[in-house]
What we know:
mainly beta, binds (2R,3S,4R,5S)-2-(hydroxymethyl)piperidine-3,4,5-triol
Amino acid sequence: MKRIEILILCVMLAVTTTAGVKADGKSEGEWTTIRNGQVWLTAEGDTVQAHAPGFVLVDGVWYMCGEDRANTWRPDVNLYSSRDLVNWKFEKKIIENGVTTKELGRSRMIERPKLLYNPKTGKYVVWCHYESRNYGASEAACFESDKVNGEYKYVWSGRPLGVKSRDCNVFQDKEGTAYFISTTEENQHLGLFRLSEDYHEAVEHTEIFSHQRREAPAIVRLGDTYFMFSSACTGWDPNQCKLSYSNDLRQGWTPLENIGNNIAFDTQAAAILEVRGTKTTTYLYVGDRWQDPGLPDTKTIIFPIEFEGEKCKFEYHERFDINFTTGEWRETPTDGLFVDKSGWKVVESSGEAEGRGAGRNVIDGDKTTAWFSRQGEEGEALHFIQIDVGRKQKIRGLLLTPNLQAGGRGLVRDYEFLVSADGKEWTVASSGRWMPYYTEVDFEAQECRYFKLVCKRSRFVSVAEIDVMKE
Ligand code: DGJ
């Protein structure tokens, strides 16, 4: 039997690979760098449109299906493939409005399509949220294909076992039993639905997390412990991710515990992927950064998470390296990437000159300290910080580390980044209405000794670190 694993997931961007060779000459695989927050493009230069993705791993190839939000409200379902979660090939539209079913694109739309491989039937199955425009239908649907990139045919739609069902995911247990998990009865509970052997229908319903209003569930199993990540129901806006665990999918879930910051680093859970290698297994959290800034601009974010006993280390990584041979991950070596900050000075900043929120916090290399601008009226150009980097340098990008403790408060959105050789004449190197969350912003290389960040729209901003990229 082919070795096929169902996981879930996705992400990303530019890739660099570094080969590792052991003393005995055997390859230890390559390191792939995954950078978060950027638009993913195919080799043809098309935007990857596969949001709220579902994944299946087939012979070392990740297949990812997800919502095509190019036309915002009537998403088709696209399928992509990749060996490294970075270079994505468009396979095809697997579910299409008006084609796969007549009602799709009219009285129904698809959200959160999730992939499963059924080892018993040898078929590929998509379960998803199947909804009317006002979210009143509260239905699910199932589609099936003989091949992962084959023709997905409609199998069923409706309320599973009569239960109103919205936001959803799937989980395949080690023994091949599959579950559909969804937010039920007007977003009150989570429902765990065991699927029939052919994965075509729900055959058992267990209400879990009753009255806790959770959605975006993602389950992963480590040994005999199931971990569930989930969010609150705040539409497309991010909120606190919470974790619970149990040794039994149907009962015994521990009280929900906060992980990460109060906006889950501007994501909502989509999947947990397992990268199994010769040395270890790395778990990758995959989340949607919805509306960044519009729905079609939603990004897929991926970062490694680590489990220790019943605890999960859930920390954002703007970039990291993954080795698909050994299964290891590491921090991306950044030597030569950023301009060294020793010798930097804050010339001037809005907000506190001294104290806890002082401007110098953005240059101290410590992500736990932050600059707070003063509170002002929305629309005023109040927030600025000017830095002297000590000598002329050529720079080509900017990375703002947000104040992670502040979560969704104080984010820089509307900004100008100006550079100057003498601190008098300024050139705009980069500007926009939407500074993406904790993401490298690249611009045409500029020689400068001074730079200035100006933020216009927010009432206040708070930034933990400012880094600039060397040319
Ligand atoms: C939040 C869900 O998580 C999304 O998948 C989507 O259904 C939006 N709600 C719709 O408002």
